[in-house]
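Below sits our specimen:

——
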Amino acid sequence: MAYIRAEIKMEEMTRTMPVSLYFPTDLPEEVGNKVKGVITLFHGMGNSPSDWMMMSAATRYAADNGYILVAPGADNSFFADMAFGSPYYTAITEYLPRKLDAIFKIPRKREINYLAGLSMGGYGAMHVGLSNPDKYAAIGSFSGSLDAAWILENYREDATLRPIMEAVVGTEFVLPERYDVFRLAEKVSKMPKKEQPRIFCTCGRQDGSTRMYLQNLAFKEHAAKLPLDYTFREWDGVHEWNFWDRSLAEFIGFIQGSDYGRRKRGDWSAPESP
């Protein structure tokens, strides 16, 4: 296998972007030697792209199924073009793909490219994926901060979180329509089915972090009214890596149309010898 931690120069941003990559070059015999696709993974608030590689079994899941992993770092930007900060949305949708193609020859065909993220990155995956349905075949949001309007309203008086959100949306603290995943879902739902990315969301029933479970239920209710290929899975869990690790395995099963997630859950259910 090849695990690479890169600092990629982004001239348009006048800075470098940290990117963690995994290449399944030692694929299992039953998988074969052909890379099946690329999964881009977005990190959560206060975290880094390497967290996906260190805190979850993402590389093992990728090796099992033949996926390249790409995890870019975007600070606390919500993967948006910040009002006071760097244009991370543009970097991830335009600058980074060109760099990855030039340096690593990462496949860019829509039908084998997938996007997923956790918490802040879950919102980012939905925002980026729904804004670019021509680039991703499927989107995954795990414990995603999907109700951005609610976040702005409730972060307004928070001394720690308000500066983070001001940097993203500006001092007027108003959510631009292009950042509202509820409205983006409506736009995508009007496209022909074959042009829509499939959507897979998960959230733990006990996830009280910034009302996360209720945010996801609100999006579920909204999506149910739209002609979308949308799946929501919930089980007992909170805002932590055990939940996100399982979510990624379930997402891989989802994009493949396989029972991979169920089989991974079964890995720990085998009886011990006496």
